[in-house]
Write a structure and sequence with these properties.
FAD/NAD(P)-binding domain, 16 helices, 7-stranded mixed sheet, alpha+beta, protoporphyrinogen ix oxidase, domain 3, 22 strands
């Protein structure tokens, strides 16, 4: 543990990590007038948020290497965009085309209308769908009569779905959709850390189905006359938002509007308590950087190495957070080359299908301004726990494997106009059962002036990371 008695308030706050979490932490410290030094090992700001603009004779394509959007139900992403003056740049999905397919025995099968996450809320479309067998549908219906679990204990997503809805619902819906969001294994994924709403619905209504139906009922109008609290006449917001030229607009705008000491291309090799209070960080070039407090906005395994000297108990807890590697390959085609188009946002692939890919997103149908007229941009996901072998394929072999899947599933015989492969090694933290207890334990063990924030802890999405950094900055300000 750190033996400091008081922070060295003459030094700035040091933020290690220049992804969305570190940039956001700097922004919220800046708004409170607190000096900071932002340190990033790579020469680029943004971390996993990376957008590439590819120019072709047909026009420009916008290719996302990392997240392509952020959920608006969690408001912090939209709020930050507005704070940065990007409100006119926000771009919603084409919700009229919002259809998802599931690969079912080798065939893309539409998800029935009215299925919310994993729960059918409309009887007829679900009853007529071939996605789930008649016996599987009957088993899902037992959710209405099975007793609710109310002990407050964590369980895996797989155990929860099997308990409420059965094994077929887990295989065809929950595993590819819900575990796919987190690049997780359903058999290890913490329900309370990833989808606590399901347990809340079970506890309150005794049934997921009754709970989902109740949550769909219109709420009472707000004081301004709208159910959502939006200004009168304000157009309802898409469930997912991006920006006109990609998500990197957000991190680029953050970096451009930060006025503190920003240092890219700096690797931190040691974190130690300073005799005068606060901390001292050592860089690979031999520089010593004093800090009143330190925010570690880096992967858990990087934070573990840095805190081993000043907070061994924290390092021990950080060792329990696993990571998996993931990747994407984006491919551009002429629309005429796609013989069997998916009339929707994309296709998810259950683990039981044993494919070298996890999902396909039709990026240029999901969002406008992603491909020129007459062309399509597809993004194929691989790696994680479902297809880890694809991470180790050479680029040529990976491209051939993906083209084979697109030929089989969408009838694409043509070669792509271009492709882009992005591999993210040890990029996705795994929220295994007990994750929230582990995070609470490591937070309780943190010495004064040391903070952790980012996707390894309390949410993996952009809004989650922004909110965590906002809260961290507020705690730093209070402590200083």
């Amino acid at each position: 543990m750190n033996t400091q008695e008081s922070p060295n308030t003459s030094a700035p706050v040091a933020i290690v990590g220049g992804g969305i979490a570190g940039l956001s932490a700097a922004w919220y410290l800046q708004k409170q007038g607190i000096a900071y030094t932002l340190l990033e090992e790579s020469p680029r700001w943004g971390g996993h948020v990376l957008t590439e603009r590819v120019s072709t004779p047909a026009g420009d394509f916008v290719v996302e290497a990392g997240p392509d959007s952020f959920i608006t139900q969690k408001p912090w992403g939209v709020q930050l965009a507005r704070e940065l003056g990007l409100q006119d740049r926000l771009l919603g999905t084409n919700d009229q085309a919002r259809k998802v397919y599931v690969l079912n025995k080798g065939r893309p099968t539409p998800m029935p209308d009215g299925v919310l996450l994993i729960v059918p809320t409309r009887l007829l479309p679900f009853a007529l769908s071939p996605l789930i067998s008649p016996l599987g549908k009957l088993r899902m219906g037992l959710d209405l009569v099975l007793p609710a679990r109310r002990d407050g204990q964590d369980e895996t997503l797989a155990d929860f779905v099997r308990r409420r809805l059965g094994s077929e619902a887990l295989d065809k819906i929950a595993e590819p959709l819900l575990s796919g969001i987190y690049n997780s294994e359903a058999e290890r994924q913490s329900l309370l850390a990833t989808f606590p709403r399901f347990r809340e619905l079970e506890e309150k209504y005794g049934s997921l189905t009754r709970g989902m139906l109740a949550s769909r009922r219109p709420s009472k109008p707000a004081a301004n006359g709208s159910a959502t609290g939006a200004a009168p006449g304000h157009k309802s917001m898409s469930a997912f938002m991006s920006l006109a030229t990609g998500t990197a607009e957000l991190t680029d705008a953050l970096a451009a509007q930060l006025t503190g000491d920003l240092r890219a291309g700096v690797r931190i090799t040691r974190l130690e308590a300073a005799a005068e209070g606060g901390y001292r960080l050592s860089t690979a070039s031999g520089e010593a950087i004093p800090a009143a407090a330190v925010i570690l906005a880096v992967p858990a395994f990087v934070a573990r190495e840095l805190v081993a000297e000043v907070a061994p108990a924290v390092a021990e807890q950080l060792a329990g957070i696993r990571y998996v590697s993931t990747g994407t390959i984006s491919l551009a085609y002429r629309l005429d080359d796609i013989r069997r188009p998916l009339a929707g946002f994309g296709l998810v692939v259950p683990r039981s299908e044993r494919r070298p890919i996890n999902a396909i997103t039709w990026s240029s149908l999901k969002f406008d301004q992603r491909a020129p007229a007459g062309h399509a941009l597809l993004r194929v996901f691989f790696g994680g726990s479902r297809s880890p072998q694809s991470m180790d394929l050479a680029d040529d072999a990976l491209l051939a494997a993906v083209q084979g899947q697109l030929r089989e599933l969408m009838g694409i015989e043509a070669s792509p106009l271009f492709h882009r492969i992005y591999r993210w090694r040890l990029s996705n933290a795994q929220y295994d059962v007990g994750h929230l207890d582990r995070v609470a334990a490591l937070e309780a063990a943190l010495p004064p002036g040391l903070y952790l924030t980012g996707s390894a802890y309390r949410g993996v999405g952009l809004p989650d990371c922004i909110k965590q950094s906002q809260d961290t900055a507020a705690r730093v300000a209070l402590a200083l």
